[in-house]
Input
Amino acid sequence: MAKPIDHCVVCELSQKDKQFGRSCQLTNDKPKFIQHCDKINFGKNAFRQIEEVIFKEKMMKNKKFLTILNCIIFFTLGMAFISMGYLLGDYIISLGVFASAPLVIMFIGFLFFPLSVGPVRSYLTENKIVDDRKKRIMNVLNLYQMDYDAVVEIEKQNHDFLGVNVQIKLLKNNKVYQEYSNQFEYNNSEKMIRRDVLGGFVDQI
Output
């Protein structure tokens, strides 16, 4: 169920203050309605929220394969070192000799496991945050018989920069209500938008 503040996040009439937080421009107060807001106004704020979610979704999908591959590689390396240390130790013991080398090799093997599991845990946490944010937006839109259709295209540019093209259609009762298009550059190393090219353009249908 959508919280009142979730309505404000996607509404054009919301305002944000560092001390007071998010409030309504009409009342200068926190939202106090129950379930529906008669004054809600969908526009650029809604499109911006949707844009961020669908872009992060796209990035997470692209990251999924590399995360799984990283997990497999480091897990395999870890098991290989442990097995190698164990077999070497078994062989040395059979010769009646003691050496610390097998233990060191096995210890190195265990060090690979955090490198295998860490990125997976990070990916799952990030993915949950994106999913939760999308659910909050969808809960609000669905209350007003609204949905969206979106296309995100990502192109590699110079160095760590990505060129992003976004097309979003806001639907009401399965009919196009508004259309939005935007282009921006994303710094993949710093994880931030470098430059907004169009600044977001909204077409009222």
